[in-house]
Amino acid sequence: IKSGNEERVQKVYSFLLDNCVNWSDSEIEKVKFWSANNSLLNSKDTFTKCTSLHYFIDGDENVFQEQYMFLRLNAANKTHSSLKRLLGFLQVNILSQSQFKLVCDSKKECNRLLNKLNSIVPYFKAWIDHNENGSNIEHKLHDLQDKISDLVVYQSRELKITYEEMSFTKNVDLHFDERTLFVTEPWNSNSVLLRLANVLCTYFDLVGYNNELDFLLRAEIN
């Protein structure tokens, strides 16, 4: 596939992502009917049936060691707030870290990270409120503090994930399952921060504000 056409494909995804939240039931059924028998571009630049494609919602697909074919998406589309919705309509299989089993050599509460989140949440909310408006974003911001309060964070010297279906083990710096977050020590190392904002924004239902949260996590409070 030519690079120009690949760019056009990503623009189509961008259009669909922007509009799928407003689709009617009949429009959703049309998309599902189409995806049952058609193909989309995978990350190896070939086409695969939608129902055989996968997408790893929590990170780098390379962790699966080419066991699956993954949907090709550019960086902007990967962070779109409607991504999971559209993938569901297209019948693409979504993989997540919660499907992994975690092994850690030690486990203790990481209150410093929770304290950091509580200290920056007013700035994070103000930043988003400045750029967005509408009842939908207000609802998400209203729930933000509650989600932080529900979050459980542990730190460990070493973290490993296993995936029984493929019989492999991999060292990781971060693992998230429902409302429990595991990070390696220290929580503010570059290796942890590389993915921390992305994972938290997904949990907060504020996908697209990864860069803002990453900035605040790295910044001194003054």
Any descriptors?
alpha/beta; 222 residues; globular; 8 helices; 12 strands; 4-stranded mixed beta sheet; 3-stranded parallel beta sheet
For the largest beta-sheet, the strand count, sense and barrel status come to: 4 strands, mixed
Shape: globular
The gyration radius over C-alpha positions equals: 19 Å
Poorly predicted spans:
none
* Major sheet: arrangement of strands: 7-8-12-11
Kindly, what is the distance between the CA atoms of the first and last residues, rounded to a whole number of angstroms? 50 Å
Secondary-structure-derived class: alpha/beta
The average pLDDT is 90
H and E string: HHEEEEHHEEEHHEEEEEHH
Helical content (DSSP H or I, runs of 4+): 40-55%
The helix count comes to 8
Strand residue content: 15-25%
Number of separate strands: 12
